[in-house]
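Researcher: Next sequence.
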Amino acid sequence: MGKILVLTEKPSVARDIAKVLNCSQKGNGCLTGTKYIITWALGHLVTLADPETYSEKYKTWKLEDLPMLPNKMELVVIKETSKQFGIVRSLMSSNDIDELVIATDAGREGELVARWIIMKASFRKPIKRLWISSQTDKAIKEGFANLKHGREYENLYMSAQCRAEADWYVGLNVTRALTCKYNAQLSAGRVQTPTLAMIVQRENEIQRFIPKDYWVINAKVNGFNIQWQDKAAGQTRIFNKTQADDIVSKATGQTGEILEVKKEARKELPPLAYDLTELQMDANRRYGYSAKKTLSIMQKLYETHKLVTYPRTDSKYITDDIIPTIPERLKSIAVGPYAGLVRDVLKNKINVTKRFVDNSKVSDHHAIIPTEQYVDLGSLNQEERNIYDLIVKRFIAVLNPPFEYEQTTVKVGVKGEWFYAKGRIIKSKGWRSVYQEQTDIEDETNDENQNQSLPDIKKGDSLKIISVQTVNMKTKPPARYTEATLLSAMEHPGKFIENGNLQEAMESGSGLGTPATRADII
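Model: Next structure:
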């Protein structure tokens, strides 16, 4: 009876799997047990050949030799890691091996790492696939008990191959063309160039921008503040100073009448769970972390600490099979500042809705959530704590009921002009109770005129205008991109395209780059 060869993406993952599969005997570039041999790549061991492999003439960069379009793309072994490739190839060609389990990262790039090695090593025996979303011992055990057929992932491999070849064709040809034409070291890329174009376009808008003065009119009445609004357009900005001054003098010292008091019960649903891009955006806004830094911290939390699920995901939902594991995940995070919040969720029946569980919206991996691994907060450094805090709070928030409040809008008439005030009475904090500090969440309506306390007033009441004043402001240019807003623009690039069909195509895809590659592009 032969053995099963397991191919992982890196040595650390090989050690984790070896521990679960009892492969304790150290070999040359592998770990061996009675049934399995675990070996590893070091990231990519094989890559697409350089242009000069296809023709001597490509050794020099000349415009007349472009475009370079080989009939068939060749694979070559990467020099720096050729020793490890030799080890993996000799294991693959060994008569002792009956089948191979691909245990590289469960994603498009991980698939490519393995398949290119398999192709270059001419491996032709049966292939299975380990597809897991957590690196805990439990997840590895369950994954090996439910191995998938390699053929189920052939389309994933083909899409990865297309991506790699597109990068070669676009990147190498256009980079050579630009460099030759402008006699300068210029580089282009399938994702890099449109991303750069968005930044340049925004910079041009900022440079061309001419600020304009405008005025808003605020008034104080007994107990609250009101703001002028244009009857017809609903605008609060006035671009004519004389018009603004006229309204102020018309309203000064007058008595207003309450024309309308409207009360509406409002519900604010919990946010969706995190995918990688959303997590990177929040980490950038809250802690100033770059997308790349967040991904590297996530990798540690996922691989080393085993506290969170697979980071490179583009889904904000989980699948049905995760529902039974939620109580265990909650219990594992019920420590320190999260203990009370978890207690509140477990006290009520856990309510999972389509907003969290939707199989149709999960392709390769579900949203980023905590694993069932018990957490020792003391073992995390400050940066890991910060990212873990975002994930845990979001997970708890998703399982909480909506935030409910009563929104009151008051319309006040003063000498034919209209003024408005808004107030809010909180009925149930719901998911917002997870975020005690205001800075934990973005509250777009957090201005004093929106959320002030309003006295008990009714239609027809009179209000003495205590003071009226204009506030001079200037229109602002569009803001320069931060990593957070650039990630969002890369995710939804359709709005930068005028051609309707192209716009639709961009919006129905995953945008520019993937959650895994955007950080590197930036």
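Model: The chain has three domains: 3-162, 213-269+403-474, 276-398. The longest strand covers residues 255-268.
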